[in-house]
Amino acid sequence: MAFIVKKKISGKEYYYLQKSIREGDKVKSKVVAYLGKDLQEAEKKAEQIKMQESPKQIEKKQETINEPTEITIEELANFCKRKGFIYPSGEIYGGLGGFWDFGHLGSELVNNLKKAWHNYHIQQRDDIVAIDGSIITNPKVWEASGHVSGFVDIAVECKKCHHKSKVDKHELDTAKCDKCGSEYENKGEFNPMFTTQIGPIKEDSTKAYLRPETAQLIFTNFKLVQENARLQLPFGIAQIGKAFRNEITPRNFIFRVREFEQMELEFFVEPGMDDKWHKYWVESRYNWWIDQGIDKNRLELYDVQKNELSHYSKATVDIMYNFPHGKEELEGIANRTDFDLGSHTKNQEDFNISSKVMKNNNSTTKLAVQNFENKNWFIPYVIEPSAGVERGVLALLNEAYNVDEKNSRTVLALKPHLSPIKAAVIPLKRNNKQLVGQAKIIKSDLQKIGLGRVMLENSGNIGKNYRRHDEIGTPLCITVDFETLEDQSVTVRDRDTMKQQRLGPEELIKYYQQYFE
Question: What are the structural domains, with CATH classification, of the chain?
Answer without folding.
Answer: 49-64+413-515 (3.40.50.800), 73-151+213-397 (3.30.930.10)
